[in-house]
């Protein structure tokens, strides 16, 4: 059963305060061609919640080629624990090899991370999502200021095409980091050992570092970049004047 | 057809990096010859013409382009690559597409 855009908007409103398990159940009952996106971090709760619902669910991850050894080992741990075949999406060598030949292995320290991310993460993600009708993410409001308005279900604003709407479920959008970790501990869910070493947000090895207590998790990513330089927005304060 | 480009000037008086990137591409490809008019959205001046146009067209990203056809109809492009494909009849590589997608969709930053 595919949902229309209007139904999705309505569902987002109806379920805006629903429990993650109910949103996940709705997602899995609404779409057959659907998969969980698993980053190898605390979004493992989605896999655990799905296992408790009892429906078979597909899981995919993005292997950028630059993940920590701990993350690769953890992906295997999750595969075995939940008896789930984790589908791996890798960078397109036609994009990656010329990029590396031109700019080397650490260009992100010189001219920003986005070009590398676009090839190693966004490209594989787009290719994977083109095969699906819907996907499930672990995006949460408290992760960054780019996610504060993420609804629990939406027509994917980035990967939908004019011909096909891709639906994106964000079951734990309303959960705080504390709630995620309470769930992990209470349910003895396996977690990436990097978390115990101070890594709150886990990405690629060169671009991720541990943070200190009370630092926001995003301070552990791309710390060498000037936040102001990343902006291309026209500030709403000016637009409203 | 008349194409207006709106560039952002930051509070420190410098053009924004994205606007510089797009300007560089327009110049390298010679597409700059198709841009009839460049206007600035100056963050230091809320009354600047570019900010006025951003408000009028409900645009929150820079740079953006206003394309007016021979009938006077206007269409706004916030994507440089879409402008290249649809208006300037240029070619866009997958690498350029992915880069623009990464830059413009904030929630992709932390996947």
Remind me, CATH topology of chain B?
Answer: Glutaredoxin
Computed Rg of chain A: 18 Å
Main sheet specs of chain B: 4 strands, mixed
Q: Helix coverage percent of residues of chain A?
A: 25-40%
Q: What would CATH call the architecture of chain B?
A: 3-Layer(aba) Sandwich
CATH topology of chain A, which one? Rossmann fold
Structural class of chain A: alpha/beta
Which percent band covers the strand fraction of chain B? 15-25%
Radius of gyration of chain B: 14 Å
SS-derived structural category of chain B: alpha+beta
Number of E-state strands of chain A: 6
- Sheet with the most strands: spatial strand order of chain A: 3-2-1-4-6-5
> What would CATH call the class of chain A?
Alpha Beta
Identify low-pLDDT runs of chain B. Answer: none
CATH superfamily of chain A: HUPs
- CATH architectural arrangement of chain A: 3-Layer(aba) Sandwich
The oligomeric state is heterodimer
Classify the beta-strand content of chain A into a percent band. Answer: 5-15%
Average predicted confidence as pLDDT of chain A: 90
| Helical stretch tally of chain A | 9
Explain the overall architecture.
The complex is a heterodimer of chains A (241) and B (111). Chain A has 241 residues and is of the alpha/beta class. Chain A has a single domain (5-239), classed as HUPs (Rossmann fold). Chain A has helices at residues 5-14, 20-30, 44-53, 69-82, 93-103, 108-111, 114-129, 177-186, 236-239; strands spanning 34-37, 58-62, 86-89, 134-136, 153-155, 167-169. In chain A, helix 4 (69-82) links the parallel strand 2 and strand 3 (86-89). In chain A, helix 2 crosses helix 3 (44-53). The longest helix of chain A has 16 residues, at 114-129. Chain A is globular, with a radius of gyration of 18 Å. The termini of chain A are far apart. With 111 residues, chain B is of the alpha+beta class. Chain B has a single domain (2-110), classed as Glutaredoxin. Chain B has four helices and four strands; from the N terminus they run E-H-E-H-E-E-H-H. A four-stranded mixed beta sheet of chain B has the order 2-1-3-4. In chain B, helix 1 (17-29) links the parallel strand 1 and strand 2 (37-42). Chain B starts with a strand and ends in a 7-residue tail after the last helix. The chains are: A alpha/beta (241), B alpha+beta (111). The A-B interface holds A 37, 39, 62, 92, 95, 99, 114-115, 117-119, 121-123, 125-126, 139, 143-144, 146-147, 150, 157-158, 201, 203, 218, 221, 228-229, 231-236, 238-239, 241 and B 8, 10, 16-19, 41, 43, 46, 51, 54-55, 59-63, 94-95, 98-99, 101-111.
């Amino acid at each position: 059963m595919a949902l229309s855009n209007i139904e999705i908007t309505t569902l987002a409103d109806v379920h805006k305060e629903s429990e993650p398990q109910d949103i996940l159940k709705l997602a899995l009952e609404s779409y057959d061609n659907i998969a969980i996106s698993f980053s190898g971090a605390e979004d493992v709760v989605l896999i655990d919640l799905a296992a408790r619902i009892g429906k078979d669910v597909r899981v995919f991850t993005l292997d950028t080629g630059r993940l920590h050894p701990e993350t690769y080992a953890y992906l295997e741990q999750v595969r075995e624990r939940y008896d789930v075949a984790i589908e791996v999406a890798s960078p397109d060598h036609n994009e990656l090899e010329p990029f590396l030949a031109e700019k080397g292995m650490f260009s992100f320290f010189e001219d920003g991370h986005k070009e590398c991310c676009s090839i190693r993460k966004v490209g594989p993600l787009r290719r994977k999502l083109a095969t699906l009708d819907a996907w499930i993410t672990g995006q949460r409001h408290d992760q960054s200021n780019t996610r504060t308005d993420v609804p629990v279900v939406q027509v994917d604003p980035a990967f939908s095409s004019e011909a096909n709407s891709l639906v994106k479920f964000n079951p734990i959008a309303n959960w705080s980091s504390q709630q995620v970790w309470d769930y992990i501990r209470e349910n003895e869910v396996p977690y990436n050992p990097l978390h115990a070493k101070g890594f709150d947000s886990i990405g690629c090895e060169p671009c991720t570092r541990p943070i200190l207590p009370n630092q926001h998790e995003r301070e552990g990513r791309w710390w060498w970049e000037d936040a102001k330089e990343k902006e291309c927005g026209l500030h709403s304060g000016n637009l409203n004047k | 057809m008349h194409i207006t480009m709106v560039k952002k000037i930051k509070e420190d008086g410098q053009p924004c990096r994205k606007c510089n990137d797009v300007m560089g591409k327009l110049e390298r490809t010679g597409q700059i010859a198709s841009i009839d008019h460049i206007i600035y959205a100056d963050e230091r001046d809320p009354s600047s013409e570019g900010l006025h146009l951003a408000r009028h067209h409900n645009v929150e990203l820079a740079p953006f382009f206003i394309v007016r056809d021979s009938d006077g109809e206007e269409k706004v492009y916030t994507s440089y690559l879409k402008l290249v494909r649809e208006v300037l009849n240029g070619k866009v590589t997958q690498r350029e597409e992915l880069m623009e997608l990464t830059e413009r969709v904030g929630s992709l930053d932390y996947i």
